Amino acid sequence: MITVSDTGADNSLKQRSIKALIWTGSELLMRQGLQFGVAIFLARLLSPEEFGTVALLSLFVGIGTVFIESGFSSALLQKHDITHADESTVFWFNLGMGAVVMVLLWLVAPFVANFYQRPVLTPLMGVMALSVFISAVGGIQHTLLTKNLNFKAPMQASVAASLLSSIVVCVLAYYGYGIWALAWQTLTNCVVTSSLLWLLSRWRPSLTFSLPSLKKLFGFGSYLMLSSLMDVAYNRFYSLLIGKIYSVHDLGIYTRAENTKQIPVDLLSMLMYRVTFPLFSAAANDCDRLKRGMVIALRGIMFLNVPIMLGLMVTADKLVPVLFGGQWTPAIPLLQVLCLAGVLWPLHVINLSVLKALGHSHLFFRLEILKKILGTLLIIGGLYYGIIGLAWSQVVFGVLAFWINAFYTRKFLKYGAWGQMFDFLPVTIISIIMAVAVFYAGQVINLPTIGLLSAQIGLGIFIYWGLCSVFKVAAYQDIMNILIKRKVV
């Protein structure tokens, strides 16, 4: 039975979530849109080899970033009894780890360059290492603003940093600086973001470093840190193998396909995580309320993600050459396969956000161990069939990982994989109908490539939105209710 207090709490949670969605959605749309525009511009100026060279460093820089964060951001978000001493301790620890990681990356850079037989990686990693340290300077401000569901300041900092770094990379790439344009883009983005977060946030650290605080937060955050390390190592493992076994050109092609698929996926996933994790944490003591929030979040995110992924898959043969140019056409089959892997990606974010919000970081860690062992075996097996085999291994991994992630959701909320699939099944069916229609339209309509692509996109939106409206799909009604500021049932 839902009491008056429950209803009031849900309404309050809904209002906070809508406000958070507006601010964080605005930030992500502007930032991702800007980055996508820059990616299109750079793809026509830089070669796959240059993109692949920068991608070689993603594993090492990613691991360094995880060591700096150490899971403390999630610990600060999840716990409710945080003091200023706790916050200051995290700040000084992150800063110290940032300096250590920066030096370690500088030291390991010559060995990485020798491993790939590319001397340019030594100074390139030096710039990337400096970026990692600078990011640590403003990390705590971003975390605390997120905890308070204040997304306005991070939005301003993020958009301004993206704009300025985009100008820098475009100018440098235009004048022939190649891979150094990409390196300076990263550094500029980190400097501007951290600087603006300090200016826009009132929080300042005290000269306090508390070992009890560190121990309290690390008890939760250590599992998340280890999980993040495995996640980064797994997600970047392919770059090491492709760059060494095949070629930097192949790595650049695969990275282009992966990044293109990730643009909408990251937009929706980051939007969902930033909003749902603090909200789920606030509702962690009420499982019924938490489940209701998860159902609404899941239906909403899949309502958008499934048609986008399937639509991108069936239009990739026209989208890639139109946006990036003919040199990237080998990325088309990779993008089509990776879009299938991207269909379920937001479900991983939602299920793991619930588990973290409930405070079960140790269970989160267990799931990550199982998934990464399985995923690594799939990557090694997939690469036997080339980079297209690697792409298919990600499809298989996505399906298996969803079932693994949903295990504890079923246990704690009685909302497992079957229940979740049932909730987005109508959206999936309609998306498949839309994708088939768009695909055949591309075969029979006689228009120039750009005109045909535009016609396919317009047709897809019309069919999908129309069918969702006609059949009164629950996710469609949820979104319409939010748009007209009515209560979501």
Report what the structure shows:
The chain has two domains: 269 residues, no CATH class; 202 residues, no CATH class. The chain is 85% helix and 0% strand. It has 18 helices and no strands. The longest helix has 40 residues. 46% of the residues are buried. The N terminus is likely disordered.
Q: In terms of topology, how is this protein built?
A:
Elements: H1 4-43, H2 48-55, H3 58-69, H4 72-78, H5 84-116, H6 121-147, H7 152-174, H8 179-200, H9 211-245, H10 248-282, H11 287-324, H12 331-342, H13 345-357, H14 361-383, H15 387-413, H16 417-444, H17 449-470, H18 474-483
Helix pairs in contact: 1-7, 1-10, 2-10, 3-5, 3-6, 3-9, 4-6, 4-9, 5-6, 5-9, 6-8, 7-8, 9-10, 9-14, 10-11, 10-12, 10-13, 11-12, 11-13, 11-16, 11-17, 11-18, 12-15, 13-15, 14-15, 16-17
Overall structural domain count: 2
Q: What are the secondary-structure elements, in order, as H or E?
A: HHHHHHHHHHHHHHHHHH
If helices are DSSP runs of H or I spanning 4 or more residues, what is the number of helices? 18
Q: Give the mean pLDDT.
A: 82
Q: Which structural class do the helices and strands define?
A: mainly alpha
Pick out the low-confidence regions: 1-6
Percent in strands: under 5%
Helix content: over 70%
